[in-house]
Amino acid sequence: MGFFLLTDVLHYDNGGRISCTKREEQNQHLPIIYVITPTYKRLTQIPELTRLGNTLRNVPAVHWIVVEEGKRTLEAVRHLLMKIDIQFTYLSATRYKNVPRTLKGIHQRNKAIFWLRENIDMSKDGVVYFADDDNTYDLEIFIEMRYTKKISVWPVGFVSEKKYQTPILENGKVIKFDAWNTKQRKFPIDMAGFALNTKTFYFNDDLYFWKSFQEGYQETSFLEICCTLNDLEPKANGCTKVLVWHTKTKDPLVYFASYNDPDSDTE
User: Fold this and answer.
1) Closest-CA residue to 73 (of 91, 46, 57, 50)
2) C-alpha closest to that of 225 among 243, 246, 200
């Protein structure tokens, strides 16, 4: 794509334009990984985005699409993205009306998908990955997903009171999952546990997060639009390695309140 030939350092936001650096010149042969991250204003927002950003700055040929919840982007987040100095797009998205708050993030992920459909050639190989800002990612996971043909999958640590949840393989193919609620979900997989080739969106015009999706069924409802069990490509050494974890940060105010409470067990 032409924008990878730019040598100037350009930082744009909210208008959907692209940040480019000289590093992209060296990585033109690699499929681009488009990392989509919903975020919202809170005390831990900048620390968590910093952690994810410092991970992504070590990933070649990556484009970080950060989508703020609300009517506008935030100067603090914009400043952080420019300081991290990787290719990025910073957008904002307001919450859908008459959609439960528990169905979180769908408006932001859809905003990023809309942007991709309008701004890149999705008929060419690339990778789309939904990476929440409160997770922890081993750099190896980005190597694993780089050459996804359609949909790649792997284990995710610390999900729903489980040490990890994972696809289960037989003869190198995914046959079922070790996860919560496997009976009612065709794809009982976490949002951090799969990545898609951009062509999957190109061949499925209705591949979005629909407002009608049921709470707790976002991932399976989304994947049911575009794939079958046979399409899944197991990564991470046959789904035996955990390379991404849910590591949610405590609200600092809750911690400080407990710390100052003489009757608290917090040390």
Assistant:
1) 91
2) 200
pLDDT digits (tens, 9 = 90+) for 160-181: 778 999 999 999 999 999 998 8
Helices 45-56 and 75-84, packing angle to 10 deg:
20
* CATH among 3.65.10.10, 3.90.550.10, 3.40.190.10, 3.40.50.720 for 2-259: 3.90.550.10
Helices marked H in 85-243 — which ranges? 106-119, 140-145, 198-202, 218-224, 236-239
Q: Catalytic site residue 219? A: yes
Q: Give residue for tokens 């033109």.
A: 28
Q: Which DSSP letter does residue 230 get?
A: G
Q: Is 263 annotated as a binding residue?
A: no
Q: How far apart are CA 63 and CA 19, in angstroms?
A: 9
- The catalytically annotated residue of 25, 219, 224, 233 is 219
pTM above 0.85, yes or no: yes
